[in-house]
Amino acid sequence: MVVSVDAIRPVLDHVVVNVMGKLGEAAEQYTKLGFQLTERGHHTLGSSNNLAIFRDNYLELLGYLPGRETKRADLWTHPAGLTGLVFKSPDANLVYAALTERGVPVLEPISFARPVQLPGGAQDARFKVIRVSGEQVQNGRTFFCHHDTPELVYRPEWQLHRNGVTDVVEFVIASRDPARTASLYERMFGAPLLKPVSGGVSFTAGAATVLVLKPEAVAERYVGAALADPTGSDRMVALTFKVTSLDQPRAVFDAAKIAYRPFERGIVVDHAQAANVALGFTA
User: Fold this and answer.
1) Which residues, at least 6 apart from 150, have a Cβ–Cβ distance to it below 8 Å?
2) Which of 227, 207, 209 is nearest to 218 (CA)?
3) Per-residue pLDDT averaged across 210-220, rounded?
4) How far is residue 74's CA from residue 60's CA, in Å, rounded to a whole number?
5) Rounded-to-integer distance, Cα 83 and Cα 100, Å
6) pLDDT in tens, 66-111
7) pTM higher than 0.90, yes or no?
8) Which domains does the chain have, with CATH numbers?
9) How many CB atoms lie within 10 A of CB 6?
10) In angstroms, rounded to a whole number, what is the distance separating the alpha carbons of residues 241 and 167?
11) Is 60 within 8 Å of 23 (Cβ atoms)?
């Protein structure tokens, strides 16, 4: 079957922060940072999460409960921090066929669910994911997520945050060879995709821009707030969020005594205060 790569587009669905067995600690950190988190959810595959839902995408704090670390053990081999770049899927089978046609190593779609507690009772949020094979991505995962029940995720009452965040607008990967790292995404979505930027390359993914930058370019862009991997491996290290006004995150951080510093696009919080992820905020 011939499926055109034009059938799939790079649109950010969500980002995954791997917090392993520290879900409670990470949820407390992100709540102090002004995010409204959903109630703790539990996947049928064995992992657990809290979400911060935005207008067009969301952030997932992913981990496990005590005694469940052997469930989804493949996830916990990645270092704690930003480990998931997830794109929207228009159709799981179509995405699988398109990636296969492009020669991208990809696993067959899998289905799972997560009960969601609502005022009228619990309902199951259902998903299908299409995962690029693990060896293609260092220290993390890239996959597509198809929402069978988007109304159980993108709920208006969950999209309001004290820090004023409306969307993830930047996702940053540190790589000593940005062209090599980013070539996977051009294979996934077709050329021309990548644009040269200072210190690396970028591509547009819906409301967000994905940047693959040399470590020194990351350090300069995020004024030293991002994690530096001592091994020299690729590492997903930073996010930037759109806010309605920088006054909102400043007020939240000042009240919580969270240090922040200016950077080119607004203000940034150090990775040590956000589960190993540098968080930028821009108006």
Assistant:
1) none
2) 227
3) 98
4) 17
5) 23
6) 877 777 777 788 899 999 999 999 999 999 999 999 999 999 999 9
7) yes
8) 5-158 (3.10.180.10), 165-282 (3.10.180.10)
9) 9
10) 6
11) no
